[in-house]
Amino acid sequence: MPSEKLKEGWIRVKLSDSRQADLPCRLDKDNRIVHVYDYQGNELKFNTGARFVIWKGKRWSY
After folding, report:
1. Residues 6+ apart with CB under 8 A from 33
2. Whole-angstrom distance, CA of residue 39 vs CA of residue 11
3. What is the C-alpha separation between 37 and 55, in angstroms, rounded?
4. How far is CA 43 from CA 2, 6, 16, 18, 20, in A?
5. Mean of all residue pLDDT scores within the chain
6. What is the per-residue pLDDT for 4?
7. Alpha carbon of 40 to those of 18, 23, 29, 36: distances in Å?
8. Percentage helix, strand, coil, to 5, in the chain?
9. pLDDT digits over 13-41, tens only?
10. DSSP for residue 1
11. Contacts (Cβ under 8 Å, ≥6 apart) of 28
12. Residue 11, Cβ neighbours under 10 Å: how many?
């Protein structure tokens, strides 16, 4: 099975109180998010179907 090369990108996430941030991510060849990271490089849990990331103990939507 050939390994797929992932490209680096950024994702803008928002809280309901209008706070927002740009987080680094990795995208597949179809520009789908595969991994999301915080600023220290730790991988974050995310849900592509519901379009949210768990960061700083809160649910940020994208």
Report:
1. 11, 25, 26, 27, 46, 48
2. 12
3. 9
4. 23, 15, 22, 24, 18
5. 92
6. 73
7. 23, 10, 25, 11
8. 0, 55, 45
9. 999 888 999 999 999 999 999 999 999 99
10. -
11. 4, 6, 34
12. 18
Helices (H) and strands (E) in the chain, counts: 0, 6
Structure tokens, 15: 């809280």
Measured CA to CA, the distance from residue 24 to residue 26 in angstroms comes to: 7
Prediction pTM value: 0.85
Neighbouring CB atoms inside 10 A of 25's CB total: 22
